[in-house]
Amino acid sequence: MTLVAFAVFSGTDALVKLCAERLASPQVTLGVTFAAFLLLCAHAVATGGLSRLLPRQPGLAVLRAVLASCCSSATGF
């Protein structure tokens, strides 16, 4: 599992560096996020269904999203 994680990290790092030469930073971020979401969904389906993706404490998840949005707005990203 650790070797797979390092391989995925190294592959993602290389792809991000290649894509950054041609694409804007938000496009690269969106691509990486979409790919990670697909892998996460595949893992959830393989190990017990998509219901595993729902947070146990939805209020904290919403709070985290609001704080992240405020921080990104404040930094200009």
Q: Could you give a short description of this structure?
A:
The chain has helices spanning 2-20, 25-47, 58-75. The model has no long low-confidence stretch (mean pLDDT 87).
Structure, explained:
The longest helix has 23 residues, at 25-47. The model has no long low-confidence stretch (mean pLDDT 87). The protein is mostly helical. The protein is 78% helix and 0% strand. The chain contains three helices and no strands. The chain starts with a helix and ends with a helix. Helix 1 (2-20) packs antiparallel against helix 2 (25-47).
Tags for this model:
77 residues, mainly alpha, 3 helices
Mean pLDDT: 87
From the alpha carbons, calculate the radius of gyration and give it in angstroms: 16 Å
Quaternary state of this entry equals: single chain
> How many helices does DSSP assign?
3
How far apart the termini lie comes to 33 Å
Q: Spell the H/E element sequence.
A: HHH
* Number of beta-strand segments: 0
Strand fraction equals under 5%
Q: Can you summarize the main beta sheet?
A: none
Helix content: over 70%
Overall form: flat
Secondary structure class reads: mainly alpha
Low-pLDDT segments, ≥5 res:
none
